[in-house]
Amino acid sequence: MYPENFRYTKEHEWVNVEGATGTVGITDHAQKELGDIVYVDLPKVGAVIEKGKTLGSVESVKAVSDVYSPVSGEVVAVNELLTSSPEKLNEDPHGAAWLVKIKLSSPQEAADLMSAADYQKYAGEESSA
Question: Is residue 126 part of a domain?
């Protein structure tokens, strides 16, 4: 259910590190909790993001939720698809609906995040709590 090569946060974001770049998104668990997503607010290309700090927000019919960066670095790409089609986050949160790509300033940060198995266990425990 959760891609094995991604790393996950307790705030329900994921990062897929390829070389010096990390692609960031929200998890399937997060989109299910939010419900129908109607708006996505993302940073501009060139913005410098710190791990654990807000990089944008996702608005659903239920609530607005901040998105926290799982890694530090500079935003090198923003998923323009979500500007016109925010509902893609509900359809493909681990694929086409990535949020931003970040040029990593500290690549080792991703290693501190949860594996897919650990995240699945964490998200499962949170759902049943």
Answer: no
Distance, in Å, from the CA atom of 17 to the CA atom of 63, rounded to the nearest integer, reads: 29
- Using a 10 angstrom Cβ sphere, with 0-12 exposed, 13-18 middle and 19 or more buried, the burial of residue 53 is exposed
Q: How many CA atoms lie within 13 A of 69 on its CB side?
A: 26
Host H or E run for residue 17: strand 13-18
* pTM higher than the cut 0.90: yes
What does the pLDDT look like over 90-124, one tens digit per residue?
999 999 999 999 999 999 999 999 999 999 999 98
Could you tell me the two tokens for 93?
Answer: 């949160």
Q: Are 20 and 76 in contact (CB under 8 A)?
A: no
Boundaries of domain holding 25:
8-107+114-120
